[in-house]
Amino acid sequence: MAPRRISIIGTGYVGLVTGICFAELGNNVFFVDISEQRIEDIKNGKMPIYEKGLEELFRKNRKKISATTDIKEAAESTDISFICVGTPSGKNGEINLEYIRKAAEDIGNAIKGKQDHMVIVKSTVVPGTTENVVAKTIKETAGNRFRIGMNPEFLREGNAVHDFLNPDRVVIGTKDEKVWKELEALYEPVNAPILRTDIKTAEMIKYASNALLATKISFINELGNLCKKAGIDTYRVAEGMGLDKRIGRHFLNSGIGYGGSCFPKDVLALIRFSQDSGTDLEIIKKVHEVNEKQPLKILDVLREKTDPSGKTIAVLGLAFKPDTDDVRESPAIKIVKELMKYTKNIRAYDPKGMENFRKIFPELIYCKSAREAVSEADACLLLTEWEEFKNLTEYDFSGMKSKIIIEGRKILSRERVKDFEGVCW
Ligand code: NAD
Ligand code: UGA
């Protein structure tokens, strides 16, 4: 395949991974962002985020990568633009399209007089957005012919490079034959089934997938709360269920609920989209409600063991999942916020997430290691299943004032640590 010339609009987790992986597949990539800092970083060879394996791939492909804050410069020297800007929650859970609108307007201005530029929406957007907002805005701004498509992204943070290069499937929503052919060729090297749909279906596949994964998590968490009361190990139950191929073992890890920049906001956006469409998604609403309550279950378990008032509590794990520095909607935020009503003495440690967490909670005591965080602590809450926590031993916890260890994610081993308890298993 001849190398494609691709613009990536928005250099967050998805934009950076998409662009760097397309470069790895042999294409030339132009990154565009409104953040001057991000673009400076990329130009200077600095990776603005932590994502496993991404920096190495970036260094390897630097010659194929350019970066600018001037979208016109990028549009002039490329043929395809992928929109990868954020689509956060609005005040009432609805999708906030301000970045999408602005990106569409910017592209419209940038491709004025340039025929047939392809614009592909990769951001997660509710059905109808690509045609009624993005395409409409570009049409009004540019006034000339362009081509449109929707290509949702299914990568997971912490595993993003692997997921992008080895996806279970690629979904391409477009009516445009040329867009289909170009994207089919672009994705050909990743060797995954490629599903062609119309644009609205592609948009919905993304929400339906995230909503079902979130449903599995809330299901197993509710069941886990029951299992704990009944003295049953939820993880053995999940194992037994998961052997049934129709159920599958994935996304049945009970714990303190799902966090991150996607499940929480996508579940809410889907609920709002359904309400705006005159129908109600009862199951998904419950999935959200269960997830709202689940993080605080760990404090119920703590309170059964000790009154946390004025005590020193160690919190291990702040990122919403391991192998990322992302703390957006991390269950740790809700837990720490509630814990602060009881005590100011919170000692925190996370291998990558501390810098971002400090922006939200500057008042915590940030430590250099798990061992340092738990020293002199009256209790320890383990909130993210980082690999390094797996190896913690009795010795690492030996500095604790009293040995109350509660896991919010299943990670510790009975061979290494004697007494600890799971939040819902
Ligand atoms: P992010 O917030 O990390 O990054 C968005 C970037 O876009 C920022 O750098 C911002 O400065 C930039 N931006 C905003 N407006 C711009 C404009 N007009 N022009 C150029 N740049 C602009 O977001 P993210 O986590 O990468 O998510 C992006 C989209 O992808 C969202 O819709 C999200 O739901 C979806 N998604 C995310 C993931 C994930 O794991 N993070 C996975 C799949 C899909
Ligand atoms: C998720 C999806 O897995 C991706 O397919 C999707 O592309 C992405 O959202 C998105 O749309 O942004 P991500 O949020 O990066 O990816 O990470 P996950 O591994 O899905 O974990 C999300 C949350 O669910 C984490 O807080 C994790 O701890 C929690 N989780 C996951 C559980 O509590 N139990 C599980 O069994 C699995």
Structure notes:
The protein has 425 residues and is an alpha/beta fold. Among the domains are: 5-197, 3-Layer(aba) Sandwich (Rossmann fold), CATH 3.40.50; 210-293, Rossmann fold. The protein is 42% helix and 13% strand. The chain is built from 17 helices and 14 strands. It has helices spanning 13-24, 36-43, 54-60, 71-76, 98-110, 129-142, 160-165, 177-187, 199-230, 234-242, 263-276, 282-293, 297-305, 331-339, 354-360, 370-374, 387-390; strands at 5-9, 28-32, 65-68, 80-83, 117-121, 146-150, 170-173, 194-197, 313-316, 346-349, 365-366, 379-382, 405-407, 421-422. A 6-stranded parallel sheet has the order 3-2-1-4-5-6, sandwiched between helices. The chain has a 6-stranded parallel sheet with strand order 11-10-9-12-13-14. Helix 14 (331-339) links the parallel strand 9 and strand 10 (346-349). The longest helix is centred in the middle third of the chain and has 32 residues, at 199-230. The chain is globular and about 70 Å long. 48% of the residues are buried. The mean pLDDT is 97. The structure holds nicotinamide-adenine-dinucleotide and uridine-5'-diphosphate-glucuronic acid.
